[in-house]
């Protein structure tokens, strides 16, 4: 199987969250990816929203997608070197669950340095039929 790759530069604004979600769903359909589209869309929503909410004045936000050997890898690149943290769940807080969801739903995930900023990524295996 060949490797399929896509990359999209988006403005780091709230309007990019639904755009990223739609792009992921459309790519998955076009590529015939068998991963759960709702899971992929949910996790991309969290990663893009983290950039919008926590990175602030950054001029960069890139959504990356790779599909190879049945694995789907989605990543979000921004210009801040500050890494996300998986916070302890707090039932009284209305925020702070995004990276916990990534940790629980993704088959693999991580964060790596990228050109003075970072790339936060996750991978999903195909759904079992």
List keywords for this structure.
129 residues, alpha+beta, Heat Shock Protein 90, 5-stranded antiparallel sheet, 3 helices, globular
Structure description:
This protein has helices spanning 16-31, 37-55, 98-105; strands at 4-9, 61-68, 71-78, 108-114, 117-124. The chain is an alpha+beta fold and 129 residues long. The protein has a single domain, classed as Heat Shock Protein 90 (2-Layer Sandwich), CATH 3.30.565. It has a five-stranded antiparallel β-sheet with strand order 1-2-3-5-4, with helices on one face. The model has no long low-confidence stretch (mean pLDDT 89).
Termini distance?
20 Å
Q: CATH homologous superfamily name?
A: Histidine kinase-like ATPase, C-terminal domain
Number of domains: 1
Percent of residues in beta strands? 25-35%
State the secondary-structure class.
alpha+beta
- Give the overall average pLDDT: 89
CATH class: Alpha Beta
Radius of gyration: 14 Å
Principal-axis shape equals: globular
Please identify the oligomeric state.
Answer: single chain
Architecture (CATH level 2) name? 2-Layer Sandwich
For the largest beta-sheet, the strand count, sense and barrel status come to: 5 strands, antiparallel
Main sheet: strand order: 1-2-3-5-4
Number of helices: 3
Say what the CATH topology is: Heat Shock Protein 90
Number of strands: 5
Q: What is the H/E string?
A: EHHEEHEE
- Low-confidence parts lasting 5 or more residues at pLDDT below 50? none
Q: What percentage of residues falls in helices of 4 or more residues?
A: 25-40%
């Amino acid at each position: 199987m060949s490797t399929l790759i896509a990359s999209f530069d988006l403005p780091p604004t709230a309007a990019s969250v639904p755009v990223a979600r739609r792009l992921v769903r459309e790519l998955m359909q076009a590529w015939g990816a068998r991963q759960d589209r709702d899971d992929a869309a949910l996790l991309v929503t969290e990663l893009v929203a983290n950039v919008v909410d926590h990175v602030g004045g950054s001029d960069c936000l890139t959504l990356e997608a790779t599909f190879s050997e049945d694995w789907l890898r989605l990543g979000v690149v921004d210009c801040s070197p500050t890494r996300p943290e998986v916070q302890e769940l707090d039932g009284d807080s209305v925020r702070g669950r995004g990276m916990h969801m990534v940790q629980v739903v993704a088959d693999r995930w991580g964060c790596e340095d990228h050109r003075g900023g970072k790339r936060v990524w996750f991978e999903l295996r195909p759904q079992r039929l």
